[in-house]
Amino acid sequence: MSTLENLEFNGGGSNPSGIKPIAYVVLKSQITAFPEMATAPASVAEKAGYKAVSDFTLVKGQKFSTIYSTQGVGKIECETSGEDDCQCFTNKLSLKYPDIDDAGKAYLNSALNSSLVAVVPHYTKSGVRYAVIGGRDFDAKVTNKANSGDKPGSAKGIDIEISAPDYMALPNYNGVIETDKGSLNCATGVFTPAATTPPAPGV
Prior knowledge:
Layout: E1 22-27, E2 31-33, H1 44-47, E3 57-58, E4 65-68, E5 75-81, E6 88-97, H2 102-111, E7 116-124, E8 127-133, E9 141-147, E10 157-166, E11 176-179, E12 182-185, E13 190-193
Antiparallel strand pairs: 1-4, 1-7, 2-3, 5-6, 6-10, 7-8, 9-10, 11-12, 12-13
């Protein structure tokens, strides 16, 4: 039987809102293993997300892509959905990429009719947490919309929305994300740049 946690808010100090202006996204078809969840959660941390020592495993050679999002526009959301006694959560991510350049168009074409999984850093009173949108058991719905803007100085770019049913509300991820620029440890927030090959002597 589940027990409810105390929700206590102590005033004072910073309580930042919003997400960092970046999301880490991968095609679900490129994931070979999802991080694990505790079968009998014994702590608040285990109830709030995946196991601390558990990573996404991708098809060999594949990595997470990064998507820049205009600061102050992107966000994550969660709400219960479904019929009485059969409810789950709908987790949602909204991003704003401020251009429709070739990379943006390539993303649009690659994401068409695809299910994506995103890991999103967001701010909390106790530090940055990384929430997962999309999972092993349910496919995400991806909605993309491009807009050139209608006059100089008007907003333009690609609006990206990824929403997915889930048994958990915005589950925390504490594992490692591999990108083409390096690896990010979501438990510590430490980014390790990918090794580079030094140029040959005289080049």
